[in-house]
UniProtKB/TrEMBL annotation:
Annotated NADP-dependent oxidoreductase domain residues: 22-291
Any Pfam family hit: Aldo_ket_red
EC nos: 1.-.-.-
GO CC annotation terms, alphabetical: cytosol
GO molecular function, one term: oxidoreductase activity
Domain of life of the source: Bacteria
Keywords, comma-separated and alphabetical: Oxidoreductase
Phylogenetic lineage: Bacteria, Pseudomonadati, Pseudomonadota, Alphaproteobacteria, Sphingomonadales
Record InterPro entries: AKR, AKR_Detox_Biosynth, Aldo/ket_reductase_CS, NAD(P)_OxRdtase_dom_sf, NADP_OxRdtase_dom
Keyword Oxidoreductase: yes
Protein name: Oxidoreductase YdhF
Keyword Oxidoreductase on entry: yes
EC category name: oxidoreductase
Amino acid sequence: MSLLPAPPATRSLGHTGIDVSPIAWGMWRLAENGRSAGEAAKLVHAALDAGITLLDTADIYGFDGNAGFGDAEALLGEVLAAEPGLRARMVLATKGGIRPPLPYDQSTEYLAQAIDESLRRLKVDMVDLWQVHRPDILAHPQEVARALDDAVTGGKIRSIGVSNFTQQQTEALQHFLTHKLVATQPEISPLRIDCFENGELDQAMRLGLTPLAWSPLGGGRLLSPESARDKAVAAELDRIGKEQGASRSVAAYGWMMAHPAGIIPIVGSQSAGRIAEAAQALAMRWTRQDWYAVLVAARGERLP
């Protein structure tokens, strides 16, 4: 039986020509448990040494509901300040636009402020990808586009993406942007399959957006499945993973990477070993039958 194409060694980030690894590392838990800059540096090295070059953070990462806003960016900034050479080895992505307790603010003034503050915390002059974290329904997309275009023109961000946007919100922002979107970051996992059938990934392919998948292990539910559906998906991933010497999590990453939209799973682990293990997904190969077996388990019913 023929195999689906293997994931490439690198992917282009949208239309930018910026090469990124086909798997990313995310830092939403980087600042947990009082992690030191030295400990954080070990995780950054683990990702880079495994060939994972796309590192994704956000200004809200570290916020616990009361304090900690910007903590993950600041911790990464300490790592970069201590080892300046690391910056050239990574494609650095961050996000903004969430402003507790409002909760969202994408006014032109605030976005300019948020971008400047992220750069200050990260101790860099520019980030490679800046993403609107969640849509502000009260902001006109033309206003948002103005702030983002200005940041690109000003040399503060190289490219623009969105996260958790509907297709219509993506289209509206894209319409007003001079510097077009290059990435979209929805929740995608073998347990969150909406985007495969609701048009999100079709839109990404049409617009040339690179999909970055947050929570690719279903918020940990794939590792500790409880419902019958979760267990059925885990069983299929285990079966396929066992045949290829891969763990369930690696199989989950590989399953997403096999899609023609070029999905980049964002590994959320803060364990050096699990970060390195994730790169094994590059070696997985999928038949259509196995790929669809996971989808059918996730749908809970046969395909029409």
